Predict the 3D structure of the following.
Amino acid sequence: MKTIAQFLFVLVMYAIGVAFFGAALAPGIFLVIKTARLTASSPLGWRCLALGFSVSAGYFLFGFTLIFLAGSVRTLLRLKLKEGNYPLFSFGAMKWAFVSALYLLINFTFIDFILLTPFASLLLQMLGAKIGKNVQVNSKFVFDASLLEIGDDTVIGGGAIIIGHAVEHGFLKLKKVVIGKRVTVGSHATIMPGCEIGDRALIGASAVLLKNTKIGPREVWYGIPAEPLKPRGRPEGEVVTS
């Protein structure tokens, strides 16, 4: 019975994808058709050039339209994820799957063109994240936006994974990830659900923060699993004399 339900749910998700892609493609297709009509009597070379530019512009129209549609639908339907444990075949889990699908539509088609631009932060905000000022996001693997908080002037390095969910023992577990101000998350680091990172902390490249890790302000963490970098000092037990 569960297999049938899964199959039907997947078909519904495909149908939603078709609807979103179709609506997002419409402005670009209109631009291409309009260009083709306006250049119908032009020399072939100029017409090919004009159509090439219109197809390229149409792709960017598609991407930004898709972002607008995904953010608008999430806002209108009030699809904000809440912390908790949900059975895999529950309404809470299905809501998570739908919201995740909205992000993946953009992730697989357009997001590479907006990384390290203000549009990356805008996308996460439209999907429910709380993002501060001057945040730089250089990763397409920032999931579960409505469970994410990032403070001012923070940098998310290339390929970093930030995730607010885990699947364990038949349950979908959702928990917030809170990243403070002026934090640096290194390239390909992984931040798991429930992590809290204090202001000005540094997470080294490829470090893995396990679930519910708490990092204080200005701390530096490296490794797999990540551990704090201890400052160099005198050997333990050494007596200081003056």
